[in-house]
Amino acid sequence: MERQFKMVAKTLFGLEDVLLEELKKLGAAKAKKGIRNVSFYGDKGFMYKANLSLRTAVKVLVPIRQFKVFTEDDLYNQLLLLKWDDYINVNQTISVSATVSGENFTNSHYIALKSKDAIVDYFKNKYGKRPNVDLNSAHLQLDVHIQNNTCTISLNSSGSSLHKRGYRSATNIAPVNEVLAAGLVLLTGYSGHGHFIDPMCGSGTILIEAAMIAANIPANINRREFAFEKWLDFDEDLFQLIRQAQLNKIREIHYQIIGYDKAPSAVRKALDNIKNAGLQDFIKVEKLNFFNSEKPFKEPCTLLFNPPYGNRLEIDVPVFYKEIGNTLKQSYPNTEAWLITSDFVNGLKNVGLRTSKKIKLFNGKLECRLVKYEMYEGSKKRKSKIINKKKYNQQF
Ligand SMILES: C[S@@+](CC[C@H](N)C(=O)[O-])C[C@H]1O[C@@H](n2cnc3c(N)ncnc32)[C@H](O)[C@@H]1O
């Protein structure tokens, strides 16, 4: 059996539990939740599988050394002691990213430079030559993390953030990060056993992530590269074996996955991205104003969306959120409706429905709430007081 080693999957705030669940399902050993990360053990094949399949991980790191540091020189001297030619040869390339927290170190950029210098000097001292820096796609991508006086050096096995799935060809107004989109879908409990609607789908991220979950398609199957593919110990046969085994687990989708957007440009972009992801047979997107829509089937469904936030897009926030509530009440019986917004004061307050769940998350730097509304059959009441729909739709 291959050697087992520790890995740390990093994630976004609030997604630790779903990532833990994902790792357990994949077969990780000793998975343990941290803050914005989950640590676990596995072998090389499991590292390949984790990168290919995890939906809510941003990066999979492999810690190789931990030591105490009190000055930048301590860091330099400790790094000089590592045997870097176990990881790259002198003609290959490196990049270093650093994060610092605590009082002793504050400049992460300087820590990254100092670490890079140590590795370069290691090779210069030994071979009279140095590896070059490549900020985009280096053979060795190193992660240096200093918390107070504890420094952890890790190999970044993923490379660029795993939200770069490889299916997005066009950006739209405020697309949601793919890792967050997958996390939202998993937080709703949706696993493909029911219909799914994103009624303000923008570039289609939530729909694509939902369809990949429903069909059990590995999240990063369309990704161009992982950093581990450039490692000296990369095992191409093993990687292909793992890839194929994950592909063999793809299942059929028996329910509808539908998106609406009122903007034709968003619909075009969503269709583009859906095609890139190879999901055009499983997701339907229509140009439609949600406020004029009706639930298109009788069966229960999950509805999840990220409506415009007042800070980014020009909307009358209270009026817009009130209309969301009215539409859900009138036209979406038998639905578990979820929405994420940073407008939890002016927006959510005006939806006018009782939330049955509230989860704190971040969309980029914006603090948000993912909220759940349970629409029962009986909640389909057309109240006379409801504001004239046409009048409001003119504004949107
Ligand atoms: C924040 S964006 C959604 C981004 C999307 N989750 C993505 O990943 O690209 C909000 C979207 O809602 C759409 N929208 C706004 N009002 C709408 C309405 N009444 N009906 C349908 N779509 C609407 C906008 O056109 C925009 O594309």
Helix-strand layout with pairing:
Elements: E1 5-10, H1 16-26, E2 29-33, E3 37-42, H2 44-53, E4 59-68, H3 72-80, E5 93-101, H4 108-127, E6 132-133, E7 140-147, E8 150-156, H5 178-188, E9 195-198, H6 205-214, H7 236-247, E10 257-261, H8 264-276, E11 283-287, E12 301-305, H9 317-331, E13 335-341, E14 355-363, E15 366-375, H10 389-395
Parallel strand pairs: 5-6, 5-7, 9-10, 9-12, 10-11, 12-13
Antiparallel strand pairs: 1-3, 1-4, 2-3, 4-8, 7-8, 13-15, 14-15
Helix pairs in contact: 2-7, 3-4, 5-6
The chain binds S-adenosylmethionine.
The site of S-adenosylmethionine has 24 residues, from α6 and β10.
Helix content class? 25-40%
Mean pLDDT: 92
Structural class: alpha/beta
Please mark out the parts with pLDDT under 50 across 5 or more consecutive residues, or reply none.
379-396
Number of strands: 15
Bound molecules: S-adenosylmethionine
Order of helices and strands: EHEEHEHEHEEEHEHHEHEEHEEEH
Query: What is the C-alpha radius of gyration, as a whole number of Å?
Result: 24 Å
Overall shape: elongated
The main sheet comes to:
8 strands, mixed
Strand order of the largest sheet: 2-3-1-4-8-7-5-6
Q: Which band does the percent of strand residues land in? A: 15-25%
